[in-house]
Amino acid sequence: GGFRRWFSSVTPDKQAMTMADLMAGRTLDEASEILSLSFRPEARWKDAASRKASLMELRNVYCAKMLEQCNICENTMAKLVDPSYLPSRTEVLEAFQLDIPSPEVMAAASRNIKNMEALSIQMGNFQAIAPEKRTFPQLFQLEFGPMTFSALFSFCNIHGVFEVITVEFVDALSDYLAERHAGLPVELASQPILEVAAGSGRLAHFLNQSRKLPVPVVATDNGSWNITKDQPFSVETFDHQDAVSHFKPALMLCSWMPENTDFSGAWRSHSEVQEYLLIGPTDSGLSGLPWETWGCPHPYFQGISEAEFATMDERDPRTVTLRSFQAAFEAKQANQPPPFLVDGFQRFRVGSVCGLQICRRDSELSSCGHSETISFRRIST
Question: Which candidate, 8, 107, 133, 242, has a CA 20 to 30 Å from the CA of 187?
């Protein structure tokens, strides 16, 4: 009762600033109960924008509590935060207490497709719970849609990690790249494998360390996120388009293309590019764009009118994603092929790599956004 009175009497900034301190020494259930108060009618917010921003921060507070309760030992944490250390898949799963499907199950079929079907069931289950009994993650997702709540998400958020690179993932990816390189035309085989939007260059570094590839993997990034600062890996400063023009790769890859942005259309216009790999969440705006990048209509999207779009903020990333889904919907109605097919490429899922992937959005409670490796290959003429 005293906390509820305090919560309704202070400013939103004070609410957000003091929540982390209030979590100290509390169990996860106690943290959920406290954070759930932010959804009560008496919670005061300056406006809708500040409310959303504060609730997003409170999600981070909750996930930080989940990370704290993993009780990761100091030695293990020191290794996990060291960019030069490559952990095994088992190390990651055990440290963050992750319960995800086996590599065999993940290699066989996309979890994203399966979970689209399960998503509506999960949200329906949340709705069936009495409002006062709902946990903070349930309240949050009922308002904002499916989101990840996990210790791993907190770790990745703190350390700027999107794809969790492991020994097994690097081995599988380097094996695939070596196999694909072996099939290149002789005149293209001498070019390096290019990674664009490579961030710190950590993935390219470990691929080169595998000693399985006949040519080097060159990491490039435009530096806009300032990720390369204080990193021990080599990264050349290039925008993704300039990098393709400069290195003229036959094989290239991009891990976690920025959300709601498509780079791939520019790559396909270069005749020397025979294949590009996209690593990250597929078929949405979480990495790239649903239609322009992935060429995937949403199975449940039934279209939005221009009148409805007129009520939306065009600067909102969700609106950008909806615009892409609308383009996919209209193309499907008109029986038009996806952009990559128009440009002479085919899409393939690389199951041998997908089965070993772990990303920031993985958890037993996560219904979407799982990372996969998708190949787009130029069709031989």
Answer: 242
Average pLDDT on 313-338 reads: 90
Handedness of CA 44, 49, 52, 58 (dihedral sign): negative
Q: How far is CA 319 from CA 32, 261, 303, 313, 369, in A?
A: 30, 12, 13, 7, 18
Pairing of strands 193-196, 251-255: parallel
Pairing assessment for the beta strands 358-359 and 163-164 based on DSSP bridges: antiparallel
Measure CA 36 to chain center. Answer: 26
b/e string for 255-270 if b means 16 or more Cβ within 10 A?
A: bbbbbbebbbeebbeb
Banded pLDDT at 112 (limits 50, 70, 90): low
Task: Give the C-alpha separation, 34 to 268, whole Å.
Answer: 51
Average pLDDT, integer, range 46-58:
84
333: its two tokens: 């109605």
Q: What is the pTM assigned to this prediction?
A: 0.90
CA-wise closest residue to 375 among 356, 358, 361, 354: 354
- Of 211, 14, 34, give the one whose Cα is nearest residue 139: 34
**Cα 37 from Cα 50, distance rounded (Å):** 16
Give the count of alpha carbons within 13 A of 210, CB side only: 26
Q: Helix, strand, coil: what percent of the chain each, to 5?
A: 50, 10, 40
